[in-house]
Amino acid sequence: MGDKEDETVDEAFHPLGEGWQNELEGALEETEYDAELGLEMAEDAMKVTKGELSEAEFYDRYHDDVVEEFGEDDRPIERPDDGNRLEGTLSRLGVDEESRRDVMKKLGAGAGAVGLGAWGTTADDGQPSVAAVEEEGDGNVEGTQYGMAIDLEQCDACLSCVVACAEEHNWEQGANWMYVLDYEDTTPGGKKRLVRPCQHCTDAPCEKVCPTTARHTRESDGLVLTDYDICIGCRYCQVACPYGVNYFQWEEPSVPVEELEEDHMYDARGRWVGARGPRGVMEKCTFCATRQDGSKGEEFVGRTACEDACPPEAIQFGDMNDPESDPQRYLEDPALARVQARNPQGEELQQAIDILTGEAEPAQSGGDGMTEQEARELIQAEAGETESTFKLQEDIGTNPNVVYIGNEPGPNAEQVEGPVTYAEVGQTNNRIDALEERTIRAEADPFE
What we know:
Blueprint (H helix, E strand, L loop, with lengths): L17 H12 L5 H16 L4 H16 L11 H11 L4 H11 L2 H11 L9 H5 L11 E6 L8 H10 L9 E6 L6 E6 L8 H4 L6 E3 L6 E3 L9 H5 L6 E2 L13 H4 L16 E2 L5 H4 L12 H5 L5 E5 L6 H7 L1 H8 L5 H10 L15 H12 L5 E2 L11 E4 L8 E3 L32
Parallel strand pairs: 1-10
Antiparallel strand pairs: 1-8, 2-3, 2-11, 4-5, 6-7, 9-10
Helix pairs in contact: 1-2, 2-3, 4-5, 4-6, 14-15, 15-17, 16-17
């Protein structure tokens, strides 16, 4: 496939390990689409996010194969220079170097126009491509970028977020859009916890491999979404995701479409990106996209179902580009945010909060009242120490928009049952029986 058909891959490219990659390969082979092409594109999409391959090179490498397989290539990524694109196509058609130069010379300035018309703004049926019309593929760098801060040290693993997500979106049992995972770890601290929604990456490899632009970044708020109306279920996005958050809707959904609220299905653009998908499409966490459009009322904009349901307020959702947003303010001072979330009782603690939030003046050292240092020490004693912050698979270059407070499970961490089982809350954790094989970078399937 592409320029890689003679290459042999000796080891897994996927961050979640060989077992996960093998399962995904098997899943691709169950579709009508080219499994080898999907694997190769996924590997190279991750090279793009790492900076090892340009988007133009990635597009050019697979354009012909994608068109042959799908009849279109609407991937919302940077196209190569049109003159180079035309010359490369002539080369693949067997035109020798001298003849290629002759063709390019005769076309002259028109070569760019030919290339632009053929590959820049139209699909292969001659109609304007979705990517050209909407121009959504580059993400949202300077505007609103929704994301989360998740405080793993405050999460009590009650699974309220999982239940709320299921009720909000009606996904199938076991196809969880939200997981809470507990681990035994050999790294300092011993036990670890991970709350895992979609990371809504700024540079999402799942989007780069989608031939139809079903998987796309919404320009208004940076959410990575799936348009169920144009998703063909090729599952390439599932292979290209470094986090294991995509699910295929195998059967007719248990909740029929007639029972779904239309304004919870379609977003402000009129695209079906909300609620659970129909049979034969890919789906995942949406960060409650239709809520952000005001479908449930203005009071729900800037909130998600999982955030609303979290008793210790460990999930903070908002605009990651806004320093005054809930997640950014939480990250700026986790100890203070934790204490505020607990609705603290007691005059002294409230005084410390008021001092640190600027609502009250601190006393001077040696004077009457509480100093700023004393207020800080009191809050720290109440909230506990914050070990660190991290993003999942940050080295891949996807720029995920979920920031975790706490310690990341190590590569040898083993998943164990949490304090509340999924069965106790009426949910399913499909592979909980294979505990000894599951880690954050598992050799087996850690998330499905």
